[in-house]
Specification:
By secondary structure, the protein is mainly alpha-helical. It has 27 helices and no strands. It has helices at about 10-15, 20-30, 40-50, 55-60, 70-90, 95-110, 115-130, 135-150, 155-195, 200-225, 230-245, 250-265, 270, 275-290, 295-310, 315-335, 340-345, 345-355, 365-380, 385-395, 405-420, 425-440, 445-455, 460-475, 485-490, 495-505, 505-535. The longest helix has about 40 residues, at about 155-195.
Length: about 525
């Protein structure tokens, strides 16, 4: 597969993403006429299929029937033929395509003056659209039906037209609300990509001033049962992101659960809106991870693993979204359990995934995977490997995408450099990180404490080192429950790192001990509750 940093060649990338069934179907489609047996675009397809990376010189050498000046037109023609072929193959598996096919048939009959037959196809298409909550297409169909009714006059036309006009008006309202809610959800998601979690009271005020009134308005409609399925999904998405950004993970969890419960009430929509279903699983798991609820996290992951795998076979996009969600979920489980070494077994699998889809994985998820892998290596004590993956995040210089990850990657890189003994240019690195944090407006108390400590490392005597570590630990510990400063600990487990240095053990050992102690405490609480029940308490 092509390198993610090389220039994209859309037709080549499409060929490499085709399944065996799609390739076989294309060959049958392209050779359906005897004159196409030796078509140039077919030869070009075979050459693309055989190459691992796009190289124009190799393409021209292996495909002598195509001249250099013909190549752009030939690629455009091949691209179109591939899409037509795949549409014919996939129409039976895609509801949206089926609806549009019925609409196309209706249009052909309408243009032939076959109004009655055209209406039959439109009725089928509209029923299918409403069943699968495709409101925009349903509205388009309703408008076409009204146009036909104005030409094909019958005795029942008056009553029918009134009913159709009323239905169309209702659809307009639904489409308008869906558009409003999807915009709201996208704005909150974009805010998360840019900001991460809120950093101050000012951030809270800005978010509440704009988003809270909108959410309250739609919240009232949700309570009154006025929202359709699609509206509910976008409403729950919006509420989840709103609370997630504001550190309210309990409410984020509750609304993520409602998000998935909506699919439980309409199971046929899991395939129709598979992307939003898988994203709902992601939000539910993320909330549980940040709540440190291991038992429920593991049970939820196992519960949805099979459902996600079933959707994975739908198409490449479903596979990509599923893989992104469950790679992160599996890594987070290792973080919770303190099993960093076992978690590193995922790295080759993730690398293969990133190589397989070089142009299909967005920058945000690529950065997130690199950061998570770096944290696995750091927890396992392999600081040089951690630095390698952190550098992949740091090298992405887009200030509009995950500024939070870019900031904390630089801080963790500083710590990893010190741990790996590569601190010969630590002063230069400190200045660069400090300047970046100030530029990104992300210089807060925890970061100041950390940078001040690292700055003084060279002047601390070995005999005083553990004392300084304990002092930093005591200064940072209160911030773990601070409304805004605690956001740092969602990215970096500095407390466990300090404990490991103070006790001369690995970070993994500290994390594992905490996990086992938490499990023991939970078992003790359950036993206590059961005893209370036995005594009728």
């Amino acid at each position: 597969m092509s390198n993610p940093h090389t220039k994209q060649e859309p037709v080549f990338d499409l060929v490499k993403l085709m399944s065996k069934a799609e390739k076989r179907n294309f060959k049958l489609y392209a050779t359906r006429l005897s004159g196409n047996q030796d078509a140039k675009f077919l030869t070009l397809f075979d050459v693309f299929d055989a190459l691992d990376e796009y190289d124009e010189a190799k393409v021209l050498k292996k495909c002598p029937v195509v001249k250099k000046e013909q190549l752009p037109n030939m690629k455009a023609h091949l691209y179109k033929q591939l899409l037509v072929s795949m549409r014919l193959l996939n129409v039976q598996h895609n509801v949206g395509m089926q609806i549009r096919e019925q609409m196309d048939f209706a249009r052909i009959l309408y243009d032939k003056g076959q109004y009655k037959q055209s209406q039959k196809y439109l009725d089928r298409a509209k029923e299918l659209a409403l069943t699968h909550k495709e409101y925009v297409m349903a509205l388009q169909i309703a408008e076409t039906q009204k146009a036909i009714d104005s030409l094909y006059v019958t005795r029942s036309m008056v009553n029918k037209s009134t009913a159709m006009s009323k239905a169309a008006s209702e659809l307009v309202k639904v489409v308008f609300r869906v558009n409003e809610l999807s915009n709201l959800s996208n704005m909150l998601y974009s805010l998360h990509l840019k900001l991460g979690y809120v950093r101050s009271e000012k951030d809270i005020e800005v978010i509440d001033r704009y988003f809270k009134p909108l959410l309250e308005r739609f919240g009232e409609k949700e309570r009154n049962g006025e929202l359709s399925f699609t509206e509910l999904i976008y409403y729950y998405q919006s509420v989840v992101w709103y609370n997630y950004i504001r550190h309210n993970f309990v409410l984020s969890y509750r609304y993520a659960q409602r998000w998935l419960d909506a699919y439980g009430s309409s199971p046929h929509m899991r395939k129709a809106m598979y992307d939003n279903f898988i994203k709902g699983i992601s939000r539910l798991l993320e909330a549980l991870f940040l709540m440190n609820n291991h038992r429920r996290y593991k049970a939820t992951m196992e519960r949805f693993l099979e459902a996600g795998e079933c959707l994975c076979g739908l198409n490449v996009n479903a596979e990509i979204i599923y893989s992104e969600v469950f790679f992160i979920a599996r890594i987070n489980l290792h973080f919770l359990e303190g099993t960093f070494t076992e978690g590193l077994g995922l790295v080759p699998e993730i690398e293969r995934y990133l190589k397989k889809y070089p142009h299909n994985i967005d920058l945000h998820h690529r950065m997130l995977l690199y950061y998570k892998i770096a944290c696995l290596y750091f927890g396992d004590g392999n600081h040089k490997k951690a630095m390698k993956y952190l550098q992949k995040v740091i090298s992405i210089r887009d200030p509009l995408v995950r500024r939070d990850l870019q900031c904390y990657s630089r801080i963790l890189y500083l710590i990893a450099s010190y741990e790996a003994g590569l601190d010969y240019n630590l002063d230069y690195q400190l200045k660069a990180v400090y300047a970046f944090l100030v530029k990104m407006n992300d210089m807060h108390q925890v970061q100041c404490e950390m940078i001040d400590f690292i700055k003084r490392l060279h002047s601390i005597y070995n005999t005083d080192f553990k004392g300084e570590l304990k002092s930093l630990y005591e200064r940072l510990l209160p911030y773990t429950t601070h409304p805004y400063e605690r956001r740092t600990f969602f990215y970096l487990d500095i407390i466990s790192w300090l404990e490991s240095k103070i006790r001369d053990v690995s970070v993994a050992e500290v994390r594992r001990e905490k996990f086992l102690a938490a499990q023991k405490n939970r078992r003790g609480l359950r036993a206590l509750r059961n005893t209370a029940l036995d005594f009728g308490a």
